[in-house]
Design a protein that fits this description.
It is built from three helices and three strands; from the N terminus they run ββαααβ. The longest helix has 16 residues. The chain has a three-stranded mixed beta sheet, with no helix packed on it. The chain is 32% helix and 13% strand. It is α+β, with helices and mostly antiparallel strands. The protein starts with a strand and ends in a 9-residue tail after the last strand. The protein has a domain of 55 residues.
Length: 87
């Protein structure tokens, strides 16, 4: 899924990409290691949990990506800020 974000504040326009990375097996999850000092921790969560933790525009982008995976279709969004009424 691709979301084009219009210029805003001090930032130029940008493209946000969300990829389906597939499903990790237990061994793959156990072998995950944080190698970047900018990242303190990670965890897996349900989409319901993600909706409560993310900023609304970030959650909507993720929600659209989940819908694209479910529908088997690519999506190209324009400055996603509001929830999609079709979801």
């Amino acid at each position: 899924m691709v979301d084009w974000v219009a210029p805003h504040g001090p930032w130029d326009d940008s493209l946000m990409f969300v990829f389906d990375g597939g499903v990790l097996g237990d061994g793959q999850v156990a072998s995950l290691r944080i190698l970047d000092q900018e990242i303190h921790a990670f965890r897996f969560c349900s989409s319901e949990e993600a909706a409560t933790m993310l900023r609304p525009y970030v959650w909507n982008r993720l929600d659209q990506a989940i819908a694209a995976i479910r529908d088997g279709r690519s999506r190209y969004l324009h400055t996603t800020t509001e929830p999609n009424p079709d979801r």
